[in-house]
Amino acid sequence: MSAGARPALARFARSAPRVAVLAVAALVLAACGGGTEKSDSPSPSTTSAADGGAKPAAFPVTVAHKYGSTTIDKEPKTIVTLGLSDQDAVLALGVKPAGAVDWFKEKPYGKWPWAKDKWGSTQPEIVGERDEYNIEKIAALKPDLVIAQYSGMKKEQYDTLSKFTKVVAQPKEHPDYGAPWQLMTQQIGKALGKDAEAAQLIADIDTRFKAVREKHPEFATKTLAVADSFEAGKYSAFTKTDPKAIFFSELGFKLKPEIDTLAKPGWNVAELSAEKLNVLDVDRLVWVTSSTEANDRIKAEPLYKKLKVNQEKRDLFVPYQDPDIGAAFSFNTVLSIPYAIDEIEPLLAAVK
After folding, report:
1. Which residues pair with 71 in a beta bridge?
2. pLDDT in tens, 261-310
């Protein structure tokens, strides 16, 4: 597992077993009848513009990415998303992916409250787990376009998929899992021929963040860190390239540069021992955890008890699920951000 991939995988899916790629290029080409022909008919689990009245964008469009550039000749009708959160931007642009990957084993197409209405009764085909894709299943969907933005797609995976469909891999300007949500939304919007709609989505979210910053100017004077712990004696703090840290930065908080220096090159998380917990002694500390057991374990750590952020009750323990607050700012997409803001703003404002 690459250095860039490991933190994202570890934080989003702890114990799910890895799934092997089930087909080689020969099987892929056989399944698709030669590799380059596309299906012009929409997939049963795919829709076009949500309002039904938007004009198709002018094609072809060319999208640059980590492995070069991809030219999309006509409006794609059947789309598969392979990034953790890619489906959110696609859904926000009025399209339901025919296939998606499973990072949670919790029905990623219908679990999250911010996306539930967008999916409706549609269930995409699950075509892999995390960064290991079932090429045979993807090929069977005969997609016009595969999108892998928040992903760790490898060159060999890109090459295999490109033999039978168009592929827009992760942005080249950033490490895997390190591209900002704005750029990934732009990339997806361009690939779908919906640049203007994507720009409007981004502008709307920027307006939401700006409103919070104006309402809470005190946030700009506070240093914040986001952390988790899924094993006794081991803790993690997220760097400025992680979606969680980016979310709180856009709310107005200052991040702690020392966390970035403690992370391994290419990683978006710094692994900490209990003796290093002092790096988390900030003005606001947000723990995103999966259980009350984890919360109790963290609070019971003797070295954590010595931190002022704990003693002065400036730490927040935010659930990953039920309610899905932590998941929302971990996704940090045009769909999840409004939900995350609505849920976390009053919690942050209540900390004095």
Report:
1. 62
2. 999 988 899 999 999 999 999 999 999 988 889 999 999 999 999 999 99
Q: How far is Cα 212 from Cα 181, in angstroms, rounded to an integer?
A: 18
Q: What is the DSSP string of 116-130?
A: HHHHTT--PEEEEET
> Do the beta carbons of residue 78 and residue 96 sit within 8 Å?
no
Residue 137 reports pLDDT greater than 50: yes
How distant, in Å, are the alpha carbons of 74, 76, 228 from that of 179?
Answer: 26, 24, 21
Q: Three-class SS of residue 299? A: helix
Q: Judge contact between 280 and 237, C-beta under 8 A.
A: yes
| N-term to C-term CA, the chain | 41
Identify the three-state secondary structure at position 277: helix
Closest alpha carbon to 164 in 28, 33, 35, 77 = 35
Is the pLDDT at 39 greater than 70? The verdict is no
- Rg of the chain over Cα atoms, rounded to whole angstroms, equals 21
Most distant pair of Cα atoms in the chain: their distance: 65
Backbone phi and psi for residue 283, each to the nearest 5 degrees, phi listed first = -70, -35
The model scores a pTM over 0.90: no
